Amino acid sequence: MRKLLLEFWCLAFCGLMAYGQEDYYRPVEGLKKSELKTALHELIQPEKVLDYGGKGEGYTWSGFVVTDRMPDGTVRDRYSNVVREFNGLNAVEGMNIEHSFANSWWGHTVNNAYCDLFNLFPSDGTANGRKSNNPIGVVTETPAFDNGMTRVGKSASYCADSLITVWEPADEWKGDFARTYFYMATCYEDYADLWQTTEGLLMVEKNRYPTLRPWVSNLLLAWSEADPVDDVERERNEAVSGIQGNRNPFVDYPQLASYIWGDSTDYAFYIDRTSTSPELFVPGEGETVDFGLQALSKGLEGRLTIRGRNLPGGLALDFGQSGFEADKTQLTEDEIVRGVTLTVRCRTAEAGVHEAVLLLKGDGFEHRNPLRVEYVDGIPAYPARDVVCTVNAQRFTASWMDMGEGSDYTLAVYTKDEGGRQQMLEGYPKTLAGVSATVEGLLPATTYYYTVSLPDGEGGEAMVSNEVEVRMPEVTPVFTADASELHFTSVPGRVSSPQTVTVTALGVDQYVTTATVEAPFEVSADGKEWSTKASVEGTEQRLMVRMGAMPEEGMTEGEMVLSTPGAEDIIVSLLGEVDKKKAFFETFETGFKNSYKEGQVTCVAAQWRMAQTLIGNLADDRKNGDWSVRMQAKSGVTTELEMMENKTEGCDSLWFYAGLYGEKDTGVKLTVEYSLDGGMTWLPVANNLAFNKGEWKRYGYKLDVDGLVRLKFSVTGTSSKRINVDDIQMSDYGTGDGVRQIRVENPDEWVDVYTLGGIWVRKAKRKDALKGLRPDYYIVK
What's a Gene Ontology MF term here (predicted)? Predict the structure, then answer.
């Protein structure tokens, strides 16, 4: 028998009772699994969020002052033991705003999730950088980073045969972060199509339920139980609720997670399972059921859901003499417990608002709900939606009820003069099919009206809608950047290669953009003068960004804030990696080329000549990030990817990922060469590499050459077939950390075989470890 989570101890002994929030959660009682999760999703949407950043009132750091201020005035840091003082309402030096549930997992889009205080915490900058966008988990190998509060390293949490890099919080915060992840997977379950990146998709699935992968939910359930809610977490829940108007239900009622992901998914959730009192959860007592705008000629046909418990005699529905009626007048106890959706109808002879009271009556139980419907003697036209007023576009969408008359509608859009006379918008009235239309050619800060009519066949109007008023706002400025995230790599003691960000500004108060970063990142307007702040002017503005020299290997993370008067700030995430093996690291995440026509493209690490080659991000493109190179073999055409710039400091070892495009392409071979004289002559690295279907592997080669190095990749094979190449990496000459070949010995010993990228291949006797594998370097241990 499955274990049913007992809530009674939590309510009786902890005295939780959700700070009097029982009524807030009534709509979700009686539900389980996906229905419970989606009902919570609809319930806990934030009413507002603070602007992201640290610029005073209304920004994230002003929220942290309320949510994460210790009694002694210092910052509560869940990621390190470093003690820091608040800086008024501004950012604290040495600290970042940390997205616990990494924002890269939904593409860095600045939306409610990006700004949601339930997912944001003040964090030590170093710990935040090392945490990066890795999944949460248990570090099972020697940590690469451990400051006593945050650990980063390899983990078997995902799969015992395939270690991944994770971050692990301190025991005292594991439950807090577990309930944060439950909240994010629930509040933003509608982001299913946005989930992305290798790290993100280790954590979540691209669906609304269960969203969290089983290994994640199981781990977080264990953490939540081991580290129960305390006063610090309850107080933060109250503080965030006061700012955003929503709550984290997994703090108020931690047992909820078990009804969604755990061992109670076969049972309906109730705040108090022991209650024997009759009650209805939906609709709530006294809650008005509003059926909205309806056509007088069609009458009302709406839906009403009723759900409750402890009503053994069922319920009778009484609408009085109101004209309302339902398809059922008596409900059984089973129907009420499961939840029943009724069809409610009402007809009346007069237009206007029609109101009544529904009485739900059982044995010793009465429950009243006001009912409201507004009838239009004609076509119900609805409030405008998708109102847009920018420099480049001014529009709204008009919509109305389908009257089922089999005729086109006539849409009239107009303004009114001081005397109230209509001034028709050019091109209107307009005859349209369907029940919605986009209206364009509008003026900012102007009030428009629209009506819809059906012709009577004799040049008149058989039916006309209500008049809808649409107020166009002032122009919203266009202020955008062509990047939301930048990745930098370098070796200790050397600055990274710079990357360019293009900013577009239209309709702003001043055409000046200021870029601000924190060390070790630097910005420049001209590529010569570098600092933590730079300004550029014009409608098309270009800034350069780089990671300054860092003395040791490690990860760092930061943000570039782009500001201009009269527009919201743009946040660009910055991620830096210092690794002596990554003196050159090309990810192809910047640069654009969407055709096979020969051309040159500047990407992350170098400028490349691409012939019969493009940068792709289709579903069939194999890649490590969002983009990779796609090379197509074609008869009589040269297919090449060639560096047009030299890498200095030579090359100890070369690594890259490669594999066949999609699941159908075959018969393509890859040749890799390097040059020490600027591309005049080429020396072989690998000739005619062949690939198996479905493989995406990392290849490594020892070059061990000094001087100026550049690379060339070329493809031959079946015409129109393709391969992908990504993450080309070179270490400096003399690092001594390059590729080594593993020779076969001790023939009868059982060993594991891995690729150089750490991917497990198989288990076999040492004498057979490499048998049947294509020629390459492998790790055998």
Answer: nuclease activity
- pLDDT, the chain, mean: 90
Letter for the amino acid at 166? V
Query: Is the separation of the CB atoms in 502 and 482 below 8 Å?
Result: yes
Q: Both tokens of residue 537? A: 């002017």
Whether the CA torsion 139, 141, 146, 149 is positive or negative: it is positive
Least confidently predicted of 619-623, 652-656, 770-774 = 770-774
- Cα distances (Å, whole numbers) of residue 653 to 111, 496, 631, 678: 42, 19, 23, 19
Sequence-distant (6+) residues with CB within 8 A of 190 are 41, 208
Nearest-angstrom CA–CA distance, 687 and 670:
7
- Alpha carbon dihedral 598, 601, 607, 612, in 10-degree steps, equals -30
pLDDT of residue 573: 82
267 CB neighbour count, 10 Å cutoff: 15
Burial profile 439-473: b = 16 or more Cβ within 10 angstroms, e = fewer: beebeeeeebbbbbbbbeeeeeeebbbbebebebe
Instruction: State yes or no: pLDDT of 567 exceeds 90.
Output: no
Bridge partners (DSSP) listed for residue 512? 537
**Which residues on neighbouring strands pair with residue 110, listed in sequence order?**
none
What does the alpha-carbon distance between residue 386 and residue 379 come to, in Å, rounded to a whole number? Answer: 21
- Burial code of 278-307, b = ≥16 C-beta within 10 A, e = fewer? bbbbbbeeeeebebebbbbeeebebebebb
In this model, does residue 781 exceed pLDDT 70? no
Pairing relation of β-strands 381-389 and 394-400? antiparallel
Tokens representing 85? 């003082």
Quick check: 745 pLDDT over 80?
no
Per-residue model confidence (pLDDT) at position 6? 35
Residue the block writes with tokens 């059984």:
332
Domains along the chain? 8-260 (no CATH), 279-376 (2.60.40.10), 381-471 (2.60.40.10), 478-578 (2.60.40.10), 584-730 (2.60.120.260), 750-780 (no CATH)
- The alpha carbon of residue 281 and the mean position of all alpha carbons in its chain are separated, in whole angstroms, by 32
Let me know: does 498 contact 488? Beta carbons within 8 Å.
Answer: no
The DSSP code for 519 is T
422-481 pLDDT, tens digit per residue, is 999 999 999 999 999 999 999 999 999 999 999 877 777 789 999 999 999 988 788 888
pLDDT in tens, 485-517: 888 989 899 999 899 999 988 888 888 999 999
Q: What average pLDDT score do residues 672-678 get?
A: 94
